[in-house]
Amino acid sequence: MNRRTTELLYLVLAGAVSTMAYVSVYAGRFREINRASIVYGLVFVAIFLALHVVVRICLPQADPYILPVTALLAAVGLTEIFRIKPALALLQGQWLLVGALLFVLTVVIVRDHTRLDRYRYLVGALGLALLVATIVAGTTVNGARLWIHAFGMSIQPSEFAKLAIVIFLAGYLDDKKVLLSIPTRHILGVPVPAAKYFGPLVVMWVLSLLMLVFMKDFGMSLLFMAVFVALLYMATGRGIYVVFGGGLFAVAAAVAVWLVPHVADRFSVWLDPWAKADTTGYQLLQSLFTIADGGVLGAGFGRGFLLYANHQPVVPDLQTDFIFAAIANEMGLLGGVAVVLCFLLFFWRGVRIATQAPDGFSKLLAAGLATAFGLQTLIILGGVTRLIPLTGITLPFVSYGGSSITANLVLVALLLMVSHRSNVVRAGTDLERRRLAELG
Amino acid sequence: MNKAIGRVFLVGVALFLAVILNLTWLQVIRADHLATQPENKRQLAKEMRIKRGAILGFDGSVIARSARRSGFYQRKYPQGTLAPQLVGYDSVRYGRSGIEEQMNDELLGRAPELGVQSWLDQLLGRRPTGADVVTTIVPDVQRVAQQALAGKKGAIAVLDPATGALIANASAPSYEAGKLEDEWATLSKDLEAPLLDRPLQGLYAPGSAFKVVTAAAGLQSGVVTPETMFVDTGTYVVYGGKVTNYGGAVYGPHDFETALTQSINTTFGKVGDKLGRRRLVGAMQRFGFWQVPPLPLPSGAVVASGRYDGEGLLSPEAEMDPLAVAWAACGQEQVLSTPLQMALVVSAVANGGPVMRPYVVQEVRTADGGVVEKAAPAEWLTAIQPATALSLNAMMQRVVTSGTGTGAAIEGVKVAGKTGTAERGDGTNLAWFIGFAPADDPRVAVAVVIEDTLSTGGAEAAPLAADVLRAALAQAALP
Description:
The structure holds two protein chains of two kinds.
Chain A: H1 3-30, H2 35-58, H3 66-84, H4 86-110, H5 120-137, E1 139-141, E2 144-150, E3 153-155, H6 157-181, E4 185-187, E5 190-192, H7 199-215, H8 218-236, H9 240-259, H10 261-271, H11 282-294, H12 323-356, H13 360-384, H14 402-439
Antiparallel strand pairs in A: 1-2, 2-3, 4-5
Chain B: H1 2-29, H2 31-35, H3 42-47, E1 55-56, E2 62-69, E3 72-76, H4 84-87, E4 90-91, E5 95-96, H5 98-102, H6 104-107, H7 119-123, E6 132-135, H8 139-148, E7 154-159, E8 166-172, H9 180-189, H10 198-201, H11 211-221, E9 229-232, E10 235-238, E11 241-244, E12 252-255, H12 256-261, H13 265-287, E13 306-309, E14 312-313, H14 322-328, E15 335-336, H15 339-351, E16 354-356, E17 361-365, E18 371-374, E19 379-382, H16 386-402, E20 416-423, E21 429-437, E22 444-453, H17 457-473
Parallel strand pairs in B: 1-6
Antiparallel strand pairs in B: 1-2, 2-3, 4-5, 6-17, 7-8, 7-22, 9-12, 10-11, 13-14, 13-15, 16-19, 17-18, 20-21, 21-22
Helix pairs in contact in B: 8-17, 11-13, 11-16, 13-14, 15-16
């Protein structure tokens, strides 16, 4: 079975699962099933079938598992959003459509991701500009300054900046990896590369520190810093960067806890949510109660207790940052773990694409995107389950939010492009090897 | 490069594994612990999806019922607010109280006596239907009691002395039952304590109303008879202090019955002194003081009467000097009583001695009308001998016919009672009236207390008691 047929098969499976989930919610909420619920499922399947056709035409050798996993996660998210606030599901559906268009545009316009390497400084500057714009013109929601209001919509530019900065870093670090990995000096017996190659590290550190102080958001800051350190490590293979980077971030975090009250609140709530159960700790506590209430099997889609009589969700921001609490409640431990495994599957395919890529830029790009994706997932999953301090960050594909779903669909497009190209190149080299063998 | 990527991948896998383990911890190992946290209102909120049984008055009219609003049930009060502090609230935000809390399992339809839910219902996720709780509250009487307290601060407790059924339980200031959630912030902080169930939780100095207890102790022990003569000079000097009369009155020579009808402090001080601490406290205990009356309500909803200091209920064995005993015999000193306890005191006189166990739930009915639980009146204590009760009854009738309590008289009905005016030291009084009617065939016992008044028990509380007694006696049936 070729890659695209495999993909189609899994897409159909994901479509079936999502339609059933939706019907279940619909039946649970409205105690009837009508044609609208079936139509909904079909529209959703149609979007991903269209993406499948585009991939079949433009990227036939791309990884066959990423798109179905994306579809499944988006379906779970959309269904849960519909279950919490039906009006938002329609909006999210429109954002999914916009994301799909961006996906197609990325594939059609960029065609070959290696061309992005040529514009790396432009892309990097664009990412930086997005972040600066957020700091300058952003509005504060829930204590964090992450949004820009424009054209009647609120956009979260950091989601797109994440992609731009990974593209830039992949190109930059691929270029400088040799220089960065050769120690020229020893400090206290530890081999250290020349100071000027630490420049980017310091720049990134300052950037994430600025994000922490000005955006008051620990999550995005941690994400940027960690992705950068991971890329630096993957490019050079030198653990010293991890030690330094981790140390620098720890210092930044300590400063933030000390200086930014919003971050300090989040930290103290993480240590003891019960201390301020009615105020700052309320959201996290209710999230834990909601998750715990799900048990092993959960109440079932549409049957969990997620809304009060006045339609307010039991956890504030349930449809965005806390969507996983809703999923764990209705689908239980089994469903919750299944969703986590879907994310792990995505992360694994991303890493696999990186290891199989033929060139350094492609490797770092895929690895950077996979790491960013995986980390973002871990940060919010850890946050809502009180594994780490809570930070406002979306769960890719699942949370309600236009910026998140569109940016992450572009991320999928980039990963598929890397995958397609490396498979073509490898197939090419295999073919050449075979020809050589025949000749020999 | 692949080696480093592989390592990053392994770290990622480990972190994902940590998330899964944490999820297991939350949803399996720690689930029960989290479910029972006081901050966790999920269980309460889920119960709001069950059609809760109604709380009915003794006449079968609905006091509180559940009405559905977008999948959740909310309490409605079709007759307006009736005994809100006793009936209690049922709120997702503020929990439950009163009868709503006490009878929660029955109202939610999950009490064991309601039978087990069938496996089919469980499989289909059918929610149980709550049972109705019929109370002993008589809405007609309750309304009169609430109106009597309108614009005042105080409490009225009405009992059926023969059974111990609580017929009415009014507390003022009060609140509107349907608006509790909206007004919680102001209600819970209000210094006038509208959420307090004054008849059951309010501790008041009983003042001269307490003389019924002292008289019972005196007659029972033979220290006095109704005919025993005393001479009042306006003061009774004892143990370096003195007992004086209300308003500085001097009564001269009189018998013990007159001492009760005119509420002469000096005489009751002398009787208290003769009885001594042990016998006075013993008599109080036989009436139920120092015990929480066994009215089945959540813990704290009913409080014990007795002698209190700043830290709470004193031991009945606590030392008292003769002056303290003399003043305690007049219902002053450190004696505090709830209106319910004072209603139980007069019930004992009305019953000829026994104190019945107070109760407020008449029966529990399933949704299909079957009665699963029915009140069985039972004796709680025996306070006095029948002969003592008979003498006291006669003396208390004289209080209403020719004493301080004439304001409580009802035409064509013999009323027995006792007034009380406890001076608060800040110029205001507590005005009391306790009594029962008809005196020759008691059907209703009442205790009325009005706070912060400049008036007396006879002028302020007695007429209100008459209103309530009249309303209760007009009823065809009482619990």
